[in-house]
Amino acid sequence: MSYQVLARKWRPQTFGEMVGQEHVTQTLSNALTRGRVAHAYLFTGPRGCGKTTMARLLAKALNCDEGPTPTPCGKCESCQAIASGSFLDVLEIDAASNTGVDNIRELRENAQYQPSAGKRRVFIIDEVHMLSKGAFNALLKTLEEPPEHVHFVFATTEPVRIPRTILSRCQRFDFRLFKLDELRQRIATIAKSESVDIDDEAIELLASMAEGSMRDALSLFDQAVSSSEGTLDKKGVVELYGLIGPERYLQLNDAILQRDTRAALDLVEELAQAGHDLVEFGRGLVGNFRDLLLLRLDAELAARVEKPEAVRKQMVEQASRFEVQDLLALTQRAADQYLLLERAPQPRWLLEAQVVEYSRLESQVLLSDILGRLDALGSGGPSQGAPSAPGGAGRAPGGGTPPKAAGRAKAAAKVATTTDMVAPSGPPPSQVAPPPSEIAPPPPSAAQDDFTSLPVETFQTESEAPPNIVAPEAGSQLDPQLREPYAKLLARAREENMGVGTCLLEAAPRLEGHTLVLTFRPEHAFHRDQVSDAATMRWLTSLASECFGQALEVSLVSDEPGAEEETMRKEVQREVAPSEKQELERHARNNPELGRLLEGLGGHVVDGE
Predict the structure, then answer these.
(1) What is the C-alpha to C-alpha distance for residues 572 and 492, in angstroms, rounded to an integer?
(2) Residue 378, Cα to own-chain centre: how many angstroms?
(3) Domain range enclosing 186
(4) What is the signed CA dihedral for 485, 488, 492, 497, rounded to 10 degrees?
(5) What is the pairing mode between strands 508-512 and 515-520?
(6) Where is 312: in which H helix or E strand?
């Protein structure tokens, strides 16, 4: 008998053997038990996550001699024929090679015949999104009123390409990618059953390479077993697939933190000499910076970084030396560069330029820091909000001041557009203002003359808002008996439960006697649902009673809020959780010159040269 690959040999034969898709197996099992099996199902999800396998299991459950049952015996003639793919009443169709109207007409004619060997006829159409428009139209009537003995199961990786007329006639199930632990456990189980000697590090690598696909994981494992002689270890897997180990990314992180361009270029040279795929390395950089960002934001997010423990510890240390805004910039830049690397005729040249750029990256300065500096200039005193050493302008991403940057550490930040160039009518890029500590604040007339040179509209009085900045709504005109305690309620909610507090920002409040009514727009049904469970409502009711100083009930409503309610929502949201734009608007209202400057340049902040 010819060899059967592991992905086929170890394909699940019952719902209980399916891993990671419990939300699908549970629903289908209940439907079979209660006799509520639909005539058409749509299974969607990435490759290798079990869509076709689930369709075959459903066909087996419907045709088993003991069925319909969620636990087919696997021993009867029907079960064994379905498992081997030779059952006449279960027809699998590849839509990629049967796309035309004629193919679907033939299927419709076959659907009229009674089962020949089993109880039900099951048509499994794989990659159904490949059908032509005419083929979909030919299928509509049969889908809407199929014969009682017929069931359709469609599988696709691209549900967005399926017409809504088809979607509305199917019960849809979304399959998810497998977790790293699920892949590891499955590989370890099969290795034990197949008497394969493989170490844990090799299993970890194979599971990571599969990227959530069980079929890919077993195919990679199968190939690795064939190539090994004796024990299958990490070194063998790395050599077989030409993998780039995590230590390479750690090396680049250190080079960026130390601003060591030579080390970064040497790393690219080593990768090229070893024959590694430089495009794949560029792809890995995106994940590397993403992992650092998660570790920098919150230590509890470390569980989402699927790396060996030793590597994760090193990344935690490296992440602590980056600023959040720098990692955001690196992640975005790496993603953009990866798209270019894929199409580059010489990816090495582009990758070298990429790592040089990273190793010379100047730390990004937050807009709030610049606003603090500008406010200090206006008041004549030193900036209270100016950034200290880590993350200040002219510093490396890791917080260390390189020798080259030391000479300009005192230079004030300049404002530039997103392409690092100011507007043509503005001051030249080379013009650098002296540091705040060495100059007196300019007189109002001088500042006004400076700003009027910018290509923006001017203001008549300080009370007028810039053209594109929303004027504040008059909070004093809103009901203070509602506004003040409700603002306190939102602030407390965000402190104690950030997820619920964020959802409450979309609610428009009003008081009706002793009931606090929170109105969510219909499109914010998700936010309302996150608040509506019993435990959250009890906590929210208690918190509302405490903040309002009286016993209150809380009611959630899905409707369009009234104008006054919506005004209250926006005003309280602006106070409790202002967005970056709203913070800018507030500063611009208090400082019209700053408003015109930001409106005219629309830029981000970089350090002076």
Answers:
(1) 13
(2) 41
(3) 180-241
(4) 80
(5) antiparallel
(6) helix 309-319
DSSP single-letter state for residue 471: P
CATH classification of the domain holding 233: 1.10.8.60
What residues pair up with 553 in beta bridges, in sequence order? 515
Does 380 or 275 have the greater pLDDT score? 275
Could you tell me the end-to-end alpha-carbon distance of the chain, in angstroms, rounded to an integer? 74
Residue 112 CA to chain centroid, in angstroms? 45
Cα 237 to Cα 245: distance, rounded to the nearest angstrom: 11
What CA–CA distances, in Å, run from 224 to 214, 221, 241, 507, 594?
15, 5, 9, 55, 62
Classify burial at 139, counting beta carbons within 10 Å of its beta carbon; exposed 0-12, middle 13-18, buried 19 or more. Answer: buried
- One-letter identity of residue 331: T
Report the pLDDT value the prediction gives residue 441, as an integer from 0 to 100: 47
Asked if 40 and 152 count as a contact pair (C-beta separation under 8 A), the reply is: yes
Q: Which phi and psi (to 5°) does residue 43 adopt?
A: -105, 120
Q: Would you put residue 387 in left (φ > 0), alpha (ψ -120 to 50) or beta?
A: beta
Cα 71 versus chain centre, distance = 37
| Total domains in the fold of the chain | 4
Residues 6+ apart with CB under 8 A from 385: 368, 369, 371, 372, 373, 375, 376
Burial class (CB in 10 A: 0-12, 13-18, 19+), 461: exposed
431-484 pLDDT, tens per residue? 444 444 444 444 444 334 443 344 433 333 333 444 433 344 443 345 778 888
Max CA distance (Å), the chain? 95
Using alpha carbons only, give the angle 309, 176, 211 rounded to the nearest 5 degrees.
45
Query: Among 336, 212, 204, 363, which Cα is nearest to 282's?
Result: 336
pTM, 2 dp: 0.57
At 573 the pLDDT is: 85
Amino acid at 75: K
Closest CA to 519 of 571, 573, 566: 566
How many Å apart are CA 249 and CA 254, to the nearest integer? 9
Answer whether 177's CB lies under 8 Å from 207's CB: no
Q: Is the pLDDT of residue 371 over 80?
A: no
Name the amino acid, one letter, at 380. Answer: G
pLDDT of residue 252: 93
Q: Which residues lie below 8 Å from residue 508, measured CB to CB, with a gap of 6+?
A: 518, 519, 520, 561, 562, 565, 566, 568, 569
* Residue 369 token pair: 């820091």
Closest C-alpha among 436, 460, 477 to residue 567: 477
Q: Which residue has the tokens 């992992």?
A: 291
Residues 146 and 22 in one domain: yes
Quote the pLDDT of residue 299: 72
Count each helix (H run) and each strand (E run) in the chain, helices first. 27, 10
Co-location of 153 and 24 in the same domain: yes
Q: Report the distance separating Cα 359 and Cα 301, nearest Å.
A: 26
Is residue 464 assigned to a domain? Answer: no
Does 211 lie in the same domain as 343?
A: no
CATH for 355: 1.20.272.10
In angstroms, rounded to a whole number, what is the distance separating the alpha carbons of residues 543 and 549? 10
